Amino acid sequence: MSVKTRLFGLDRNDEIGDLSRTVQSMRDRLYLANMKLKENERAMLQVNKRLEHREKLLYAVNQVSEALLIAGEKDSTNTLKDGMEIVGRCLDVDRVEIWRNETANGEPCIVKKYEWVSEIGKTRKRIPLDAKIKSGVIPGAFEMFSGGDYLNGPLSKLPQEYADFLGEYEIISIVILPLFVNKEFIGLFIADDCRRERVFIDDEMRMFASAGLMFASVFNRNIQRDLAITDVLTGVRNRRYLMETAEQQLRTCIENNLDFSVIMFDIDHFKPINDKYGHTNGDEVLKILTSRVRHVLKHDTLLARYGGDEFAVTLPGVDHGKAIKTAWRIQRTVQNSAFLVGGSLEINVTSSFGVASKTENYPVLAEIIDKADKALYKAKAAGRNTVVSYHESH
Q: If residue 273 lies in a helix (H) or strand (E), which one and from where to where?
């Protein structure tokens, strides 16, 4: 009953009026007490919701930390992605990304290395993996993040230069935290919402920051591992990684009765190229070569620098005939057009190829590589710029 409802007799100056006013006063106090109770109930509901949300965030952090602690070195990347999904679903965002600081062509940039995307996020425009963004695209951003500052909130409340750049990717709200390892700024941890404007609350930010610290540790471990197994000049895998991984590939193929082939190739007359154009331009030729070869191969095919200007490709599950066809595709791609070096220098480059495959007589990796190498030298002797396959009759 509303406190504004008047009782009969309130305006009388007799016993009935006194009783009516007493009843009205009691009813008003009861109403106010009831309103206070409802306010307390609403407050308790809000407290319970906050506690439930905090418990959910703590559980998510615990899940991430447990997964990362249990993960071994070889599956840490997959575990990192699983952890990002836990964070994304817990925060109810549409994308979670990790970006790494790198240098490209002598300029500092940031590279997108990992991402988790919700079903809604998949329908929105997004920056592809391995995309490079120069540090100066948003003036002052690199200095801000390297100093430990962060962004949190809807794009409509951010500085215009951020809103202009991020808005292109259909982001409504975003949180960006810098990642540090041993006080070194190594990259960014990002989550964004494509559906609504929001400011991430303190509990969410603490959870996000905790996850970021753990991810930074794993991320840094992956960087160090990549450096150990990657050829610094060309960016492809090095000989150490080739031998370790190809051994595993061959063992699996033998266990499952599958084919296994190796292509060895190098650049024809590479020393004269170095002598004529200089080692800096020679290095550029190697980089362009590996870039072209990568476009011919499937994304998960192992391409490694074996030494100098010699490279190897392993093809698990691929028979000898198909391996030869792959070698010819690479050969045509290499010689298809001149290599543009230093922005203006055109150098015509060709390569020679040797192909060998697993057989009953040659089931060992070192033997297969040796046979492919011998076939490569036969290609050189045959006039270069060609493919020669090794047969047991050689």
A: helix 270-277
Give the DSSP letter string of 53-111. Answer: HHHHHHHHHHHHHHHHHH--STTHHHHHHHHHHHHHHHHT-SEEEEEEEEEETTEEEEE
pTM higher than 0.85: no
Question: Where exactly does CATH 3.30.450.40 map onto the chain?
Answer: 76-229
pLDDT at 1: 43
Mind giving me the DSSP string for 323-360?
Answer: HHHHHHHHHHHHHSS-EEETTTEEE---EEEEEEE--S
How does pLDDT run across 35-87, given as a tens digit for each residue? 887 777 676 766 556 656 566 655 666 666 665 555 555 556 777 787 788 88
Triad 211, 169, 147: Cα angle to 5°: 45
- Beta-ladder partners of 333: none
CA gyration radius for the chain? 33
Find, among 99, 56, 93, 124, the residue nearest to 200 by Cα.
Answer: 93
Strand partners, 43: none
Strand, helix or coil at 293? helix
Fold designation for 76-229: Beta-Lactamase (3.30.450)
- Name which of 23, 32, 26, 24 is nearest 5 in CA terms: 24
CA dihedral in degrees (61, 66, 68, 72; nearest 10)? -170
Q: Please write the tens of the pLDDT for every residue from 261-281.
A: 999 999 999 999 999 999 999
Amino acid 9: pLDDT: 63
Please name the fold of domain 239-389.
Alpha-Beta Plaits (3.30.70)
